[in-house]
Amino acid sequence: MAQIVFGLGALGLMLVLLVVCLTGWTWVYFRVSRGEAILQQESGETISWGLIDIVALIVTVAVLIGMFQVGGLIATGAKFPINPDTLTTNQRASMIMAFAAAELLTVLAIAKLISLRGFGLQLFGKRGEQFSSDLLLGCMAFGMLVVPTLILQTILALLQPYEHELINMLIKDRSVPMAFASVAAAVFAAPLFEEFAFRGLLQGWLQDMWDGRLSTASVFVGRIRRYWQAEPLPELVAATATSAESAEVASSFADSSDNPFDSPQSEVIVASAVSDEALPIERSPAQLYGPILISAALFALMHLGQGLAPIPLFFLALGLGYLYQRTRRLTPCVVVHFLLNGQSMALLMIQVFVVGDDAALIAN
């Protein structure tokens, strides 16, 4: 009974995602027919993280995955050395949940590491003011990307069968715990972690480095806000004060004697960079396409071993990279990734629990 209910729920989700897809193409059609750009270029503040944060993310997720999976296997009574063929349903589900938990905790840990240096992530907009519009934008972008992605996946699957360990485990063990763990990992944890890592940290870092918005030190360790200094860091101010208006703002940090609200006893909080949110960004072709291509290529390479999946995933990542570059926010990208993985997982659930066909469908 539980399997039937789960399958019907997946079928309902598919219908919802189909409506979202049609809405997205309709939105694109009306914008293009009016002669409007699909997406306007936005500007934003200089990033506050550096190469050290990207390395920390890789190390943290690897360590946590190992720790959580070993802990989960011990808690479920597994005997070492592990034989994958003898694992029980709960043991398989615990390994998948450990992977998902490690990804989510890594995102929280790296976000905290960055915020401890005095800056927010700036990845989801200021105080969530654009959250609602970003949700809608993500749904529309999903409508634009899902159809070509699925068409390309279908064609390539005819040339070489798609392989994914998560799909193989679920087909082999058709149980509710496995289904729950698979949805948690593929639909919720993976989109947030992968967009945070590839579009946010990596592409955001590459973009600002390529645009010359980071000082040499900031490229490696990120920006640091020093609360105890009455003077701004000159090299960091110079790296971001790219206009007369920005220079004037930077000067106001250095000389606060004319500020009627300042007092000798007050603690001076100095920003190590000036917001250039309103400044236009003019990029060369290398600056425009380089960060997107690199992050998309690495994203595709991460999926090696899954047949020809890296090819459609590369083109999907190009679209996600363009979306992040235009908005400088992760919410639309996470929504696209969530809906795409949700649609793929819903197809798989229908196939496993309703149709019963063993042919693998794609869940990125």
TrEMBL record:
One of its GO terms (biological process) is proteolysis. Residues 291-341 form the CAAX prenyl protease 2/Lysostaphin resistance protein A-like domain. It comes from the Bacteria. The keyword Phosphoprotein does not apply. GO terms for molecular function: endopeptidase activity. The keyword Magnesium does not apply. This is CAAX amino terminal protease self-immunity. It comes from Blastopirellula retiformator.
